[in-house]
Amino acid sequence: MCNLSFLLLALVAVIQLGCRTAPRPVSEAESSASTAQSQAHALLFGLLSDEKNVSKLLIIKRERPELRALINEISERAGEAHKALEAFAKSDRTLNLKDQGLPSAEVLTRNAIVKARTKELLTESGKEFELRLLLTQNEALTYGGYLAATAAASDTSGDRRQMLQQLSTDLLQLQKKTGDMLLKNYTGP
């Protein structure tokens, strides 16, 4: 009797295990796509981290209200998106916002550019400062807008995809405002 109970229990266990589906192995292509998607988010997160702080430059500089309003708008939008990406990363542990996947030479080059641009912005004033600031913002917003669109195109999360698409639209609209201010104030007669 005891052997029969044991056999029945073992048979039930085998049947239950057999009914469970084994997890599908992740293909190399899927893993690579996931890594690329995460790296796009990390690149965007890094850019937004810088952009959310750009208005701090105006604490030590006294510039036109029109420029101040635009830079504050850029900082606010970048800050909102930065917080949203942080929240997405907390709820999705596969989203690594630290690994940008860049080779060390690229990281060194980017750091050298940031250092040079920061020095230029801190040492200049007046129209030269405004022009350099608008030029750097034009570059950053163009890159950010297209990077957000690229990240959205490959994102598998509907909420994230929607946020990234809206961010792309917003950053490109801010880039247009920046370009318009450049044309209005810094072109010849």
CATH class (first level) name: Mainly Alpha
The overall strand count is 0
CATH superfamily membership = Ferritin, core subunit, four-helix bundle
Mean pLDDT: 84
Shape: globular
Could you tell me the CATH topology label: Ferritin
Distance between the termini: 104 Å
Instruction: Report the helical percentage.
Output: over 70%
> What count of domains describes the coordinates?
1
Q: Which range does the strand content fall in?
A: under 5%
User: Could you name the ranges where pLDDT drops below 50 across 5 or more consecutive residues?
Assistant: 2-27
The H-and-E topology, N to C, reads as HHHHHHH
Quick summary:
The protein is mainly α. It has helices spanning 2-19, 28-51, 57-60, 65-91, 104-123, 126-154, 158-185. The protein has a single domain (34-185), classed as Ferritin (Up-down Bundle).
Distinctive features:
189 residues; mainly alpha; Ferritin; 79% helix; disordered N terminus
Structural account:
The protein has 189 residues and is mostly helical. The chain has one domain (34-185): Ferritin (Up-down Bundle). Helix content is 79%, strand content 0%. It has helices at 2-19, 28-51, 57-60, 65-91, 104-123, 126-154, 158-185. The longest helix has 29 residues, at 126-154. The termini are far apart.
Helices, strands, pairings?
Layout: H1 2-19, H2 28-51, H3 57-60, H4 65-91, H5 104-123, H6 126-154, H7 158-185
